[in-house]
Amino acid sequence: MTPLIDGLQYANWSEKIFRQMRAGGVDAVHVTITYHETFRETVLQIEKWNRWFERFPDLIFQGFSADDIRLARETGRTAIFFGSQNPSCIEDDIGLVEVLHRLGLRFMQLTYNNQSLLATGCYEAGDGGLTRMGREVVAEMNRVGMVVDMSHSGERSTLEAIAHSTRPIAITHANPASWHKALRNKSDTVLRALAESGGMLGFSVYPHHLQGGSACTLESFCTMIARTAGQMGIDRIGIGTDLCQDQPDSVVEWMRVGRWTRKIDYGEGSAAAPGFPPMPEWFHDNRDFGRIAGGLKAAGLSDADIAAVMGGNWMRFMADSFGPAKG
Question: Residue 151 pLDDT > 70, yes or no?
Fold first, then answer.
């Protein structure tokens, strides 16, 4: 059977959520372990995960390669793959890319919303593209087998990352801007370049990225996926929910503000203090993936295409991406 894989979550992890993953049949999840944390702080997050793996070995374990997804299916558990939503974890030291890869980091965004040492985030007024260090870090990520993730990056930076990377990149959690215009959603130009390079797009259910926000219907979401499959090809798309289950609103402030400002970064054009919007009624937690699969069926996708979107494509991409570069 084809695995069920989520391309990104940032939940307030607990035994409850791990059991919901099992109830929903989720075989693998790319989890955010760090945003603005330094290298040492990121190691502390890994240590925290080690304790969860120790406490709940019948539910979860750390994934390092795509073979661990098969192991997860065979043993009725969920493989957890680590990722970072910002390059703060490598500080200004390219050598930490390999160190973190050895500790299990398999995805790293070149930016969050701001300018980083590597590239430009999608909230900046101008986009200078990849920096000198950015080009070197992309090459190092290619070498060791860490996926370049451009989910929060500006357009020029994303296109340059696609062009510069010798291995396909991912946009793990975003939607087409043509469906819903948001700073984080991606243009047709980006989606075309991503598909042509063999990259992957994970569709987000985070309300700020949805047409109609929290009121977005399952039909609208799945019709958008079907349309994007026609644009990018069925093999280039998957799910990346950006599920932030059980997180307090204070976490949104950390995500957006980090250490770079003393003021509240409202983000997404909102005039209100940052907080998590209500999830759409058809997706609240890991037990709801079956609803998306049902919606894709109603949108006209075949069983084989649904299986590809729900995990088969991520499985292939991870198998090609997590090992060292060949040749």
Answer: yes
